[in-house]
Write a structure and sequence with these properties.
By secondary structure, the chain is mainly beta. 6% of the residues lie in helices and 40% in strands. The radius of gyration is 23 Å and the shape is globular. The N terminus is likely disordered. The structure holds copper (II) ion.
Length: 478
């Protein structure tokens, strides 16, 4: 805002009557008071006085929360809330998490999209499960800015579905965007008639095969919470799809969404959409600037993303309400270039072929990667997928099934080249990409110096459970 423009608004105040600020203290150039108080996630308490260390205590435990009005639902939680507490730090900080499992089942924590050492990745390939009553300390540096999340990597389809997930924001001190920020964790939950959790394996094979979508849509653990905004004053939403199987296609009436970031921080240049599609585990940063025409009460909705390509769309479902107050001036100012990417040179790179398929196991259809049906009990040192530190490769991931599979690679973010022959519209770092049926995803990845065992799988967690998961061994160069 220009110096002096506040005076201009003060001068106009008597004319602005009904749509003016609610009190004399209210600032035209700021979001309305308590604009995010109802909707924002809980923020983790930092136990360490060092400004470059975020040290937190996280307990996985049962909690009774009011998901539906007037009903207490026993959910699985981190520190008693859904989502788990927001871990907010800055690039280069050290994160120390003292984790304790008070659940009835073993669990682990995976730091989705964060460039951790393999031993900190929280999968059963690299650590023993944290048994009930036991603890584990996760300790690593946050090397990249961006929007990430954490969730269990054992029995994850059930545990994520029960409420175990939490957001991570790593800020970049040189971030070019100046806007108030809100983290929106989108998810869903399967509740029975009494408002209690359905068992994670309800509907058995059928649920695994198609992916279980919850009966209740959640935004930061709440059903249709409320947000306040002021016209012309952009808000930066960091949106995370933490559902076990559901894709979210979010739309804001009369308002464009300017995408500025994805899974791995800022994208090269801003992109404007009327809706935002996020497959499971994908993230986006969007700038939202409500026009004058949007003043009043509006409903942000989830449109049917048509995950099964049925072509018949279900009705929009409400996600959250926005009370838009008139009065702000201007529009979102976004630099044309958000982030510089070095030129891509693909000449002579080796190509790795991956096929997402179906495979019978004991006469029952399962899901597979290159013909192998993964099971949690497998011996990971026998992985057929080997790579070497320092190498750069192109992966070609063919979806040889009739349903969409969002592909996720642990440990190493990559650049998408194309999906189904269509070039990726913008340069960005990603770790999860939806592969439509019978189409091929191509991406390029470099293995930096973090040898170890890294999982890759479909992030419809029910599909991972049914076998669409494998391990990549990244070996040190001799
Ligand atoms: Cu899948």
């Amino acid at each position: 805002m220009l110096p002096g423009s506040g005076l201009l608004w003060l001068a106009l105040l008597p004319l602005a009557s009904a749509c003016g600020p609610a009190s004399e203290e209210e600032d035209w150039a700021a979001q309305p008071p308590d604009w995010d108080a109802e909707i924002a996630p809980v923020v983790a308490e930092d136990l360490n006085p060092d400004p470059n260390v975020l040290e937190v205590k996280i307990e996985a435990r049962l909690a009774e929360l009011e998901i539906l009005p007037g009903v207490l639902t026993e959910v699985w939680s981190y520190n008693g809330s859904i989502p788990g507490p927001l871990l907010r730090a800055k690039k280069g900080d050290r994160l120390i998490v003292h984790f304790t499992n008070h659940l009835p089942d073993p669990t682990t924590v995976h730091w989705h999209g964060v460039r951790v050492p393999a031993t900190m990745d929280g999968t059963h390939a690299v650590q023993d499960p944290v048994e009930p009553g036991e603890s584990f300390t996760y300790d690593f540096e946050l090397l990249d800015a961006g929007t990430f999340w954490y969730h269990p990597h054992i029995d994850s389809s059930a545990q994520v579905g029960y409420g175990l997930y939490g957001p991570i924001v790593v800020e970049d001190p040189d971030d070019p965007i100046d806007a108030e920020e809100l983290v929106l964790v989108l998810s869903d939950m399967s509740l029975d008639e009494e408002g209690q959790l359905q068992p994670g394996d309800a509907t058995e094979w059928f649920g695994d095969y198609f992916g279980r979508e919850g009966s209740v849509l959640l935004v930061n653990g709440q059903v249709q919470p409320k947000l306040r905004a002021r016209t012309g004053l952009p808000q930066r939403w960091r949106v995370i799809n933490a559902a076990r199987a559901r894709f979210f296609k979010m739309a804001v009436p009369d308002t464009d969404l300017i995408r500025i970031g994805g899974d791995g921080g800022l994208i090269e240049s801003p992109q404007t959409f009327s809706e935002l599609l996020l497959a499971t585990s994908e993230r986006a940063e969007v700038l939202v600037s409500f026009p004058e025409s949007a003043a009043g009460a509006l409903e942000v909705v989830a449109q049917d993303p048509d995950r099964f390509n049925l072509g018949v769309l279900e009705l929009d479902q409400p996600l959250f309400d926005v009370e838009v107050e008139a009065g702000g001036a201007g529009a979102a100012r976004v630099p044309e270039t958000l982030r510089e990417f070095p030129p891509l040179d693909l000449a002579g790179l080796p190509t790795r072929q991956i096929v997402l398929g179906e495979q019978a196991l004991d006469g029952v259809p399962h899901l597979s990667i290159n013909g192998e049906v993964h099971q949690d009990s497998m011996h990971h040192h026998e992985t057929p997928h080997v790579a070497y530190v320092g190498d750069t490769e192109v992966w070609e991931v063919l979806n040889d099934t009739d349903y969409a599979h969002p592909f996720h690679l642990h440990g190493f973010s990559f650049e998408v080249l194309e999906v189904g022959g269509r070039p990726w519209p913008v340069r960005e770092m990603k770790d999860s990409v939806n592969v439509p049926p019978r189409e091929t995803l191509r991406f390029v990845v470099t293995y930096d110096d973090r040898p170890g065992l890294w999982m890759f799988h479909c992030h419809i967690l029910d599909h991972a459970k049914l076998g669409m998961m494998a391990v990549l061994e990244v070996r040190p160069r001799e």
